Amino acid sequence: MTTFNKRRERFLAQLGDVAAIIPAASLVTHHADCEHRFRQDSDFWYLTGFDEPDAIALLLPFRPLGERFILFVHPKDPALEVWQGSRCGIKDAVKYFGADLAHPLDEFSQRLGDYLVGAESIAFRVGKHSKVEEIVLGVWSAQLDMASRRGLAPYSLIAPCPFIHQLRLRKDPEELERMREAARISVEAHELARKVARPGMNERELQAVIEKHFLEKGARGPAYGSIVATGDNACILHYTANNAPLRDGDLLLIDAGCSLEDYYNADITRTFPVNGKFNSEQRALYEIVFAAQQAAIETICPGQNAEGVHQAALKVLVEGLLEIGLLVGSVDEVIEKGFYRHFYMHRTGHWLGLDVHDVGAYRLGEYPVDLQSGMVLTVEPGLYISERLPVPEGQPEIDDCWKGIGIRIEDDVLVTDDGSEVFTESAVSKVEDVERC
Ligand code: GLY
Ligand code: MN
Ligand code: MN
User: Fold this and answer.
1) Residue 206: is it exposed, middle or buried by C-beta count within 10 angstroms (0-12/13-18/19+)?
2) 3-167 maps to which CATH number?
3) Please, what CATH class does the domain formed by 170-434 belong to?
4) Tens of pLDDT along 100-149?
5) What atom of ligand 1 comes closest to residue 269's alpha carbon?
6) Residue having the nearest C-alpha atom to atom 3 of ligand 1
């Protein structure tokens, strides 16, 4: 049984008498008639491994064996394939992708009604796939119209996300191997960039070093817009302009990770001095972020939760900022009143997987979701000292010597049965390793 087959079985087992309709992604226009490179929908990929646009998967646990996994795909079309590349086609969707039955996409609207017979609900994510949605709602509405004559119809529409995302949150062993590979390539890219960075280079040159390595190692490319941010640019959390010169005396923050052919991602941030040596303010802040990250990673084990990891990092960040005088008051007061937020305005991490900010709940109502083995999260505390946000009342004005320092250290961490495994630990992050002799 293939990985995708096993996942579908687990998904089908959860659905009961619900018919799931899971669409693939479509091509997205970049400008004029040029399209972005195709990026498959992660839920669709997780269940099918099929990498073409516009396809639709039906998962029908209430149907007889041999009719439970249906794929609608673009049929083969030599004239179009000359332009767009080869398509799998109907027969091979069955042969290579394990579909029980496959049909051309343009038969979806006429066939869907029959496939829904016996379903008590429909699981379909509204608001994301407008063309498919129009058909699904139209077919469903017609079935409701006929319900009194037929005696039954799917009476509710539910979201499939909780079922799939619960599965995606705990990675299977094959996924973990792929994530280790994404981490390994991304670590190498960071190490290369740190070794070649010099004052006078442009941020973009280092972006090229990193992304070249991703491609050379067979990845699709960057998992997200690489951030190569020197000096004050590092205080812009989603900086992607990457077009400033590296100045002697500044720090350089690089947040970059690759995405593999099967969409598994890494997400790594490292910060280091452009000229190889921290000045005293940079070093002081770096040591605080490093200690916060270590403290957060140490708490990771089954039974902990994402909020606990965040609080562990936050406490060390605040203690450090109080010690160097960038904040005043007690740790508890600063945290309770949010007096640290002009220096640390994001959370300490997120789930990682097929999506960089991967799916899965962090909380169920008021209850935080416990970490369990097989979950992967980033741990990415930072400090950003700039003038963009106002200093909270009662807190000290920021001396110029601290301004323009942005630091983040980000690793990808697997929760294991008895603690954690840091996929990205070979990207050096201790002060003495990050400095160049
Ligand atoms: N690179 C995106 C993030 O760190 O969340
Ligand atoms: Mn991240
Ligand atoms: Mn990142």
Assistant:
1) buried
2) 3.40.350.10
3) alpha beta
4) 999 999 999 999 999 999 999 999 999 999 999 999 999 999 999 988 88
5) 4
6) 267
